[in-house]
Amino acid sequence: MSIQGSRPPQDRGLAPNLIVRGVAQAIQFYREALGAEVLYEGTIPNGPTLHAQLRIGKSYVLLSDEMMCQEGGPPTGSPLKLGAASAVLELWVDDVDAAFDRAIKAGGKALGPVDMAFYGDRVGMFVDPFGHVWTLSTPVEVLTPEDLFQRMIQHFQPA
């Protein structure tokens, strides 16, 4: 989608389009929880916001209201409609503890405490109010592929 003021024309990066129930509420949450900047907001006069483009850090995220996913359209729906999320959105941050606290205070639901992961990142996972699962990560260690493989084997060994 080409809208002046949104993604630069030369940007060919991947941008997830999150299907949500209530784009305006999602915008507010992502601003508070993740520091999102709104680049475009498509609101019907006297009606709902149907689409938005956000920048979170260096990444772009699109939002579409589930009401746009009607008969004849793509087989999509919000996680709230479908009862499950099929993807995890990972965001690298400088301070995972502060970012995680901010997301939880804004209304996210923690899936556990922030902790070290076997792959060398300090990680916190939460579900946003719209059903999307997020992982916030701060790299702590740089591992070789061999070290990572050994840690993975050890981590997933039956007890």
What would you say this structure looks like, in words?
The chain is α+β, with helices and mostly antiparallel strands. The chain has 2 domains: 1-70, 2,3-Dihydroxybiphenyl 1,2-Dioxygenase, domain 1, CATH 3.10.180.10; 85-159, Signal recognition particle alu RNA binding heterodimer, srp9/1. Helices cover 23% and strands 31% of the residues. It has 4 helices and 9 strands; from the N terminus they run βαβββαβαββββα. It has helices at residues 23-34, 79-82, 96-105, 145-155; strands at 17-20, 37-43, 49-56, 59-65, 88-92, 109-110, 115-116, 121-127, 133-139. Strands 5, 6, 7, 8 and 9 form a 5-stranded mixed sheet that branches. The chain has a 4-stranded mixed sheet with strand order 1-4-3-2, covered by helices on one side. Strand 7 (115-116) and strand 8 (121-127) form a beta hairpin. Helix 1 (23-34) packs antiparallel against helix 3. The longest helix has 12 residues, at 23-34. It is elongated and about 55 Å long. It starts with 16 loop residues before the first strand and ends with a helix. The mean pLDDT is 89.
Terminal residue distance: 49 Å
Number of E-state strands: 9
CATH topology of the largest domain: Signal recognition particle alu RNA binding heterodimer, srp9/1
Number of domains: 2
Task: Provide the CATH top-level class of the largest domain.
Answer: Alpha Beta
Shape label: elongated
What percent of residues adopt helix (DSSP H or I)? 10-25%
Main sheet summary: 5 strands, mixed
CATH architecture descriptor of the largest domain: 2-Layer Sandwich
Following the backbone from N to C, one meets helices and strands in this order, namely EHEEEHEHEEEEH
Proportion of residues in extended strands = 25-35%
